[in-house]
Every structure is written in C-alpha cells, then in structure tokens.
Amino acid sequence: MTALVEKSAVITGASTGIGRAIADKLVVEGWRVFGSVRKEKDAAELQSALGEKFSPLIFDVTEPEAVKAAANDVRDAIDGHTLSALINNAGVAVGGPLLYIDPDELRRQLEINVLGPLHVTQAFGPLLGADRSLRGAPGRIVNMSSIAGKIASPILGPYAMSKHALEAFSDSLRRELMLHGVDVVTVGPGAIKTPIWAKADDIDAEEYKGTEYYDILIGMRDKFKEVGEAGLPPEDVGDLVHQILTVRKPATRYAIVRNKFFMWTLPRLLPKRMIDNVLAKRFEIPVRKKRS
C-alpha cells in the first residue's frame, strides 16, 4: 500500500481495552494508526507491540492545547492528505447516587466523556475534510458510546448522563458535517471485557456510608465485576469499527451487546416504569410502597 492511498486513523484512549483492540485491528488491516495515551511508558509499549504502522500521541483529552499540538503532528505526518478516521474512545465511568454525589465528580465525568470528544473533534475535524485544501476523500468519525447512552442504570447516573450527551453530540455533529462529507457513527457497547469493569473496586462506597445507598453500592461493586467478566471480548468491537470504516454506507448507530434481544431490543420496547422495576430488582434496590 503506497503512502498516497494509505488509510489513517486517530484513536483516543488506545492504551487498553476497546481502544487497544481497535488499534490492533486497524494495524493488521494495513492502516496507519495514531493512538493517544497519557503516559510515556504506554506509548513505548504500544509502539513496540504494534510496530511502524503505529504512532503514539501523548495527550489528555481534557487539555485542548495538547490535543491541538497532536493534531498538528498528525497533519505533518499525513502530508497534505485527509485523515480517514477519528475514533473518540477515551472515557471513564464515575458512579455514585445522584442524591449525594460530589458535583466535582460529575463535572470530571462530563469533562472527560463529553468535552473530551469535543476538543478532539474540533482539533482533528479539519484533517477529516473540513479543510478543503487537503487531498483525498472525507473521513469518518466513530464515537464510542455505551448501552448507557440509551438505558440509564441506577448508581451509574453520571456515566449515563455523559453517554446520553455523547449520543446527542453525535447526531448533531453528523448533521452538521454533511456540509463537509464527513460521516459520524455511534457505537454503543454493552459489557466488554476491559479494565474499566475491574475498576469497580475503585468506587468509594465509604464516601456514602451512613446513607441509604451504602449497602446497595457494596452489592453493586460485585455485580459490576461479574458483568465485566461475562462481557464480549474487545476484539469484537475492533472488528465492528473496522467494518464501519470500510463499508460504503454504515448505519448511524450500532449496538454490540451479548444477548442483544433481552439486553437491548426488549428494554427499548417496554414501558419505562417496567424497566424501572426490572433494574431495581436487579440491583437490589428496595422499593418503598407509595401511599394510595
């Protein structure tokens, strides 16, 4: 594959999990991949593992100036051609009952999962085709949402809020970028076997000791780990993203969930009050009877 036709992609949060799986897949398929990490040691490990087709970018998605500097580096590397793809994957999951959560924790969640993709898209958008001086076809953006982008679970309200916002961002952005021929596709995974589930122990239940949610939080931490262990392999998401980037006309949104009918299709059809009761039972939230 010559440099003139070489496909190129930027992936945020490429060090582990879904981002790493996407990078692996695209490199194997011959793409030139630029992957963002926050630590030098992760950059070195990825470079060694993925070889000359991979170039690490060191930045935090919450730091706009660092993101812009990385975009300039990519512009130089692709030498007057358009970037084929941008995958907004970097994110975190913040948990806690909304009645008591520290607003600063919610602010951090939104800063990373919502403003982060905005910073990255604004920096790399010109390379995808908004800059008409570049040669080549317009690229595509893939925004990594979640099943939580459509179905909000208790105790994960901050995370669900951020992913609902990302869904709206994706839809508005897709309609705006029709002007430049840049498509935007959303991917909403269910449970995937990634380190984010292993971090369930990081939820500081002690912060909520003395509240009515303490015992619920303790129980949910174990459930989160069980869900993660039963999740789909991240390689499945890598395969899906490659498909999205190579088919002629992808759908606007993809759900990738184990037991898709029961975990995705059916909950989207049932009344929300029924889903409320299902989730309360699943997460062992005692339901106080209302007065008649």
Account of the 3D structure:
The protein has 292 residues and is an alpha/beta fold. The chain has a single domain, classed as 3-Layer(aba) Sandwich (Rossmann fold), CATH 3.40.50.720. 48% of the residues lie in helices and 12% in strands. A seven-stranded parallel beta sheet has the order 3-2-1-4-5-6-7, with helices on both faces. β5 (140-144), α5 and β6 (183-189) form a beta-alpha-beta unit. α1 packs across α8, α3 runs parallel beside α4 and α4 (103-130) runs parallel beside α5 (157-176). The radius of gyration is 20 Å and the shape is globular. The mean pLDDT is 93.
Number of helices: 10
| Topology pattern, helix = H, strand = E | EHEHEHEHEHEHHHEHH
Low-confidence stretches: none
Computed CA radius of gyration, to the nearest angstrom: 20 Å
* Strand arrangement across the biggest beta sheet: 3-2-1-4-5-6-7
Determine the mean pLDDT.
93
Q: What profile does the largest beta sheet have?
A: 7 strands, parallel
Based on DSSP secondary structure assignment, what is the total number of beta strands?
7
CATH architectural label: 3-Layer(aba) Sandwich
Quickly count the domains: 1
Overall geometry comes to globular
CATH fold label: Rossmann fold
CATH C-level category: Alpha Beta
The percentage helix is: 40-55%
Distance between the termini: 71 Å
Overall structural class, as computed from helix and strand content, comes to alpha/beta
**CATH H-level superfamily title:** NAD(P)-binding Rossmann-like Domain
| Fraction in beta strands | 5-15%
